[in-house]
Amino acid sequence: CCLHFLKGNLLDADNYETDPCLKEIRRAENYSWMDIVTIHKDKLPNYEEKIKTFYEEHLHLDDEIRYVLDGSGYFDVRDKDDKWIRISMEKGDMITLPAGIYHRFTLDENNYVKAMRLFVGEPVWTAYNRPADDFPARKQYMKFLAEEAHNGV
Fold it and tell me: Counting C-beta atoms within 10 Å of the first and last residue's C-beta, which end of the chain has fewer, N or C?
């Protein structure tokens, strides 16, 4: 329901295969599926097209969990007032974007990131470009924001 961000000093990106903290997070959050993607012009097929797609404002019907193993980039998310917030991601950082949040991703000037993608269950890659306000995931996220505002959070 809400955005979570772990700064890199809790996780060991160099030893992610054996990191007990990552193992515990995966167990506690039921992140049963994982893969690793490298976003770089020499490593990612259809790089230019994919970069443009990642930067299109969109949402997903499931949470999006990313753990940066190397490199860096930015996730932009919309706040409750529909303004962009830029989140700088670097090696060791993990982010959970809740289902229904509008967001986009871009590389920084290094043009390289290697990230672990985590899912509860089987991965669903479908991105719904804005406007996508009629999906139940979006309505649930907006309800969460309204409740937060009502409770003064």
Answer: C
Reduce the secondary structure of 119-142 to three states and give it as a string: ECCCCCCCCEECCCCCCHHHHHHH
Annotated binding site for Ni(2+): 58, 60, 64, 103
Tens-digit pLDDT profile for residues 5-36? 999 888 999 999 999 999 999 999 999 999 99
Residues belonging to the binding site are: 58, 60, 64, 103
In the three-class reduction of DSSP (H, G, I as helix; E, B as strand; rest coil), residue 21 is classed as helix
Looking up residue 92, the CATH number of its domain turns out to be: 2.60.120.10
The residue segments making up the domain with residue 112 are: 4-150
Q: Give the amino acid at 51.
A: I
